[in-house]
Each structure stands twice: as C-alpha cells, then as structure tokens.
Amino acid sequence: MTPLTEILSGPFNERYAVPAINVFNDLTLEAVLAAAVENASPLIVQTSVKTVKSIGSDVLYAMWTAMTAGIEVPVALHLDHCPEREVITECLRRGWNSVLFDASKLPVEENMRQTVEVVAEARAYGAAVEGEIESITGVEDGIGSDIAAEQQDLAVALEFLRTTQVDVFAPAIGNAHGSYKQAPVLDAQRVSDLVAAYPVPIALHGGSGLSDEQFRDLISRGCAKVNISTALKETFMKSNLAFLETAAERQKWDPPSLFRAVRQDVVELAGSLMRLFGSAGRAG
Asked: By its UniProt entry, which SUPFAM superfamilies does this protein fall under (predicted)?
C-alpha cells in the first residue's frame, strides 16, 4: 500500500489525475486492481461507509490484503465520505491508509475543530485525510443531500486548509454525486484560485457523467484525485442485466460466466478512466 500523498504528488505537480473508484464487493475490487496493473496506473480504491458496514471491515480488509499482495502499481485504500468518527477510527485501526472525514453538515468552526482531531488520529497511523467544508450535492450510499451545496468564501476555505493541514481538499464547484440530469455548470476557476493560494491536491467528487473536456480542464487546474462511484455501479448493474437477459433466453445458468462478463466490463471502464485522466503508464 502506498501513502495517498505519495500517489497524488506526481499527478498534482504534473497535472494528471488518479481515479478514485468506489468498490462494493470482491468482483469490483479485483477488477479495478486488475485494470490498474493492466494499464500500469496508480489507483485509489474507495469504500463507502455503507460498504464497510455491509461487508464488515475485517472481511473487506482481508480481501484487500489478499488481492494487493505483490501488486506492482501504487494503490491506496480510502474511506469515502464518512461523517461517523467511530467508523473512521475502526478503519484506521484496521489498515485503511486514507479517510475522508465528512463534517460538511457541521458549522465550519466545529468541522475544523473535529478535522484537526481526525488529522492527528490519522497521522498516528501514517494515514492521509481528505477534508471538505461544503456538502457535495447529491446522495451517495445514503450520505448527502439533494439540496445544492452552499459555497464558502475562498478565505474560509484557506483558513480550513491552514488550520487542519488536510492532505487533500474537496471543494464544491457545481459538481454532484449520482447521475447528472443535465450538463453541470462547473466553477473551474475556484479550483485554480484554491491551488494558487494553497497548493494542495484537489479531489473532484461527482465525476460520473462529466464530459472528457470538463475532466481535462479540471485536472489541468489541480484536480489530482477524481472520484468515480455511480459510473461503476451503473456498469456493474447493466452488465449483469444484459448477461441475465441472454441467459434467460438460452436457459443457461452459469454463474462463473456471469462473473467473467461483468468483470470484463468493470476492467474496461476502469481502464478507460485511467487513460482519460492521464494516469495510465505512470506506474511503469
């Protein structure tokens, strides 16, 4: 396992990005890791609080250690959007090397106070912390809200960054979790302003559904970590559906064939993101 700061330093300095992909079972975990090896790309594997609770941190971490044993590309294991301090503690103890403490629903002062505590806790484990002061619009795995996120002034964001010393920052720039119902209007300049004032890698949330041009523009401004969750869920579910419809027509019921077909679609999706974001070939 590679420290998140190490995985993101090259991308941030050279203006490419590493996909941070939310997995939810053994098949998706194995497939995105396989794509990283196949594309010689660094990778951030993300787990939601919901996934941690449904599979259990013990089993999830055992899967991770088994599947990454001897892996030859830089990989990190990140706990995504976690408002629950006890889950952060559990995952840090278990071996996650990066966490997003999501205190965006709290007043900024309280968010800052608690984030300082989480950063100190994570440092004791050699782990990284991603922070945010604004909710990202949309609900993902039961966390979030569909009400548009309120943006804080740049000065507030900079005070948060300087006070907490988080390793990665996730600003609200008009992005949203889930599928976009219409093309999003993004405040890309905000990324540039943040990075110019305080050079920290920016995490782009709500990546599923942005155009290639939007990705390239935001990455060129300092978005070094790009989160993908909805696109993988949709690929996984639609791949299952297509295979099962064919199986029903043929009356052939072979689970390993289903797993192979779905795995291939997940590998292809992850690989296409690595190539788009510019991380493919960077781990060679």
From this structure: Aldolase
